[in-house]
Write a structure and sequence with these properties.
Length: 696
């Protein structure tokens, strides 16, 4: 077992503190008496620790066993980490944990181990990474400590769970540093209800490391072993575990997974005319990386143009984009683009004869992802779906490289200085025809555009330098001489971030039908390092359509612009464990829009998880706190103010929350904790009693 004082990242957890005044019993009594034994057993004994409150309520409202069976099947399927597999690893693991709990805790004959504190923790979190057993220490009750490495961002990265036995015949009980304290672990009257004396006894019997755990279950949290000051955050941790299914982070993860994986029940997937998903990554002058996607049909799809509800010709489609973790098992976020417009009769005829492509843009932090695109024709309820792997390079580690190659149409690029539209690159919006691939008739120009990425530097430092670019266009079949071209561009055109937009047009005159490849080589004038990019070109006969018309969602949405983009980048950074980067993106998001509550909520969480209390306090001092901010965020902000010595500001914030929100045990307990730190025992006790009344 690692030292209990090992330094690891500390995370605060944003969930109700009701755990402090409730036991580890099941949910309150539910109307289950009319359920058959099979379904009563399922809801009460099999899934009580993993089912969400809304799911439980929905299940209990069902009228027939057929509905209940369908609900149970859907319940497990949405939690299946790999919906393509017939074996549901989540379900299998859950029932392994349940069986272990019943076999090792509680009364084995009664199979009630799932009811015990140890059973609940084991079923919820799984087997601990390590265990430490202290069965017979001098003057102490039997103690067991489990060490966990969290598998969910709702919990700290590392933490301890401590159990103790009140008496020989009882099961092990979960220990709370705030509600129990060291005196609960000491036998006899030696501690005399004095927590400080109890802590000293534990230090003498088991050492400082175990004593530290009785004050804080979170490694790395500052503690004072010379004076009992319990960790409220440890009880927040225990509360989070108890309410994990209803935790906001877990609810969002499950909702994203449900949205990403549920089938389109009203759609019929097209069989013969499939679509290809092509994605290119481009960088703006501030270093923001954005994926630009084109989901295009291989052949004309006349059904795209139909009759809209107002009886006019037009199109109506939805492009759903789900960003997943690299293994495709967890959804990070999802966005839906609505593509709709009316067209004239002549234009409708023309568009039905062309290929169609849907465009979107996906803000991402550096890393690897799976992206699932689902394009649904809302007029015919038909759809196509594509899943691809995407890697976003890290600008900080980019010395000399090249972006994907975009093939664009003859339509002149348009200005888009804010970069809000798909395929806007360095302030110019291009109409895409393909990414890394192109379909043309012989004689049609091959228009290419791409970015070069270099180290950040002042443009003036590159003046006089030339970037040499070499183009090769040749058949994939051997024996034919490739066409080659060279050009030089001014290196002074790089912006300060080290990004340069350039392009070239290649002729396809005289090319026979077949497959070709374009290879582009760019040489760094300073280091002579070379960067490469390739493109596949297919030249087809004149009977096949090559023209592509596209549509994208140009709506302003909620008008928050970069705030939402940077928030999405923060979500992707957090999922890959890049907390510092996530903080940076969240700070940018708030700088873009100070009233964007989701970014403020997340920023407060991540900063608090890293014990960066001063930054939390400074952040909320510099900007007004929106009334819509979550109650848990308000609690964390007040705790940060208390940590920095601003007790007045801490209590004032929470008491203001009591004026605008219904009182909760969470707020009362948080106020009690702050008043205790101030030494105001009477006010602290008053708020504790108020919290107790709400939980009784």
């Amino acid at each position: 077992m690692p030292p209990l004082s090992s330094r690891v990242s500390k995370r605060l957890l944003l969930v109700p503190l009701l755990f402090l005044f409730t036991s580890l019993s099941l949910h309150a009594v539910d109307p289950v008496k009319n359920l058959s034994p099979r379904y009563r057993h399922w809801i009460e004994e099999e899934v009580p620790y993993i089912i969400q409150s809304v799911e439980r309520k929905e299940f209990l409202s069902l009228k027939s066993d057929t509905e209940r069976e369908n609900f149970i099947n859907a319940f497990w399927q949405i939690r299946n980490p790999d919906p393509r597999s017939e074996i549901n690893e989540y379900k299998e693991e859950h029932y392994r944990r349940l069986a272990y709990a019943n076999a090792n805790f509680g009364n084995i004959k009664a199979q009630d181990g799932w009811r015990t504190d140890m059973g609940r923790i084991y079923i919820t979190l799984g087997p601990p990474e390590q265990r430490a057993n202290y069965p017979a220490a001098r003057n102490l009750r039997p103690i067991i400590i489990w060490f966990y490495q969290s598998k969910t961002p709702a919990l700290p990265t590392h933490f301890y769970i401590l159990f103790y036995k009140r008496s020989i015949g009882e099961d092990f009980t979960l220990y709370s540093p705030y509600q129990d304290g060291p005196v609960r672990l000491v036998t006899g009257l030696e501690a005399k209800n004095d927590q400080k004396n109890g802590l000293d006894i534990i230090k003498r019997s088991l050492g400082n490391e175990v004593a530290r755990t009785t004050i804080s279950l979170i490694p790395g949290e500052p503690v004072n072993l010379n004076d009992y000051t319990p960790s409220l955050q440890s009880d927040v941790l225990l509360s989070t575990i108890k309410g994990l299914p209803d935790n906001d982070v877990e609810k969002e993860r499950l909702a994203q997974r449900r949205a990403a994986r549920e089938s389109i029940t009203t759609s019929v997937f097209l069989g013969s005319n499939t679509a290809a998903a092509q994605t290119a990554i481009f960088r703006d002058s501030t270093g923001r990386m954005t994926a630009h996607a084109l989901v295009s049909y291989e052949r004309p799809e006349p059904s795209i143009i139909g009759t809209l509800p107002d009886k006019k010709p037009g199109y109506s489609l939805t492009l759903q984009t789900s960003v997943l973790t690299p293994d495709g098992k967890e959804a990070i976020y999802q966005q839906n683009d609505k593509l709709t417009a009316t067209v004239g009769d002549l234009e409708a005829t023309d568009l039905r004869m062309k290929r169609f492509g849907a465009e979107t843009r996906i803000p991402l932090a550096p890393g690897q992802y799976q992206i699932v695109y689902t394009l649904t024709n809302d007029l015919t309820h038909s759809a196509v779906r594509q899943r691809i792997n995407v890697k976003v390079p890290d600008p900080a580690h980019t010395n000399w490289t090249m972006s994907s190659i975009l093939v664009f149409s003859s339509k002149p690029p348009m200005r888009d200085t804010e970069g809000k539209l798909p395929f806007s690159i360095s302030g110019l919006r291009f109409s895409p025809q393909g990414v890394q691939q192109a379909l043309l008739h012989a004689g049609e120009p091959l228009r290419l555009v791409f970015q070069l990425w270099s180290r950040p530097a002042s443009p003036s430092s590159r003046e006089g330098q030339k970037v040499k670019i070499h183009y090769v266009l040749g058949s994939v079949q051997s024996g034919t001489e490739p066409h080659q071209e060279d050009e030089e561009i001014d290196a002074g055109s790089f912006d300060e971030s080290g990004t340069l937009l350039t392009g070239h047009t290649l002729s396809t005159e005289g090319l026979a039908t077949g497959n070709y490849r374009v290879v582009i080589t760019a040489s760094d004038p300073a280091t002579q390092q070379k960067a490469y990019a390739t493109l596949n070109l297919r030249v087809v006969n004149d009977t096949l359509a090559t023209d592509l018309w596209t549509a994208y969602d140009a709506s302003e949405g909620n008008g928050r612009g970069l705030a939402i983009d940077d928030y999405k980048r923060a979500l992707t950074a957090m999922m890959s464990g890049q907390n510092d980067r996530a903080i940076s993106w969240l700070q940018r998001s708030i700088a873009d829009d100070q009233t964007y509550v989701p970014a403020l909520d997340r920023l407060v969480i991540v900063l608090s998880q890293s014990s960066r209390y001063k930054e939390v306090a400074d952040l909320t001092s510099a900007h007004p706190i929106p009334r819509e901010v979550s109650q848990q965020t308000a609690i964390l902000i007040s705790q940060a103010r208390a940590q920095t010595g601003d007790f007045k500001g801490a209590t004032s914030l929470l008491e203001q929350q009591l004026q605008v929100q219904p009182p909760t045990a969470d707020l009362y307990l948080a106020l009690a904790s702050i008043y205790e730190k101030q030494g105001n025992a009477s006010r602290a006790e008053d708020y504790k009693q108020r919290a107790a009344k709400l939980t009784n």
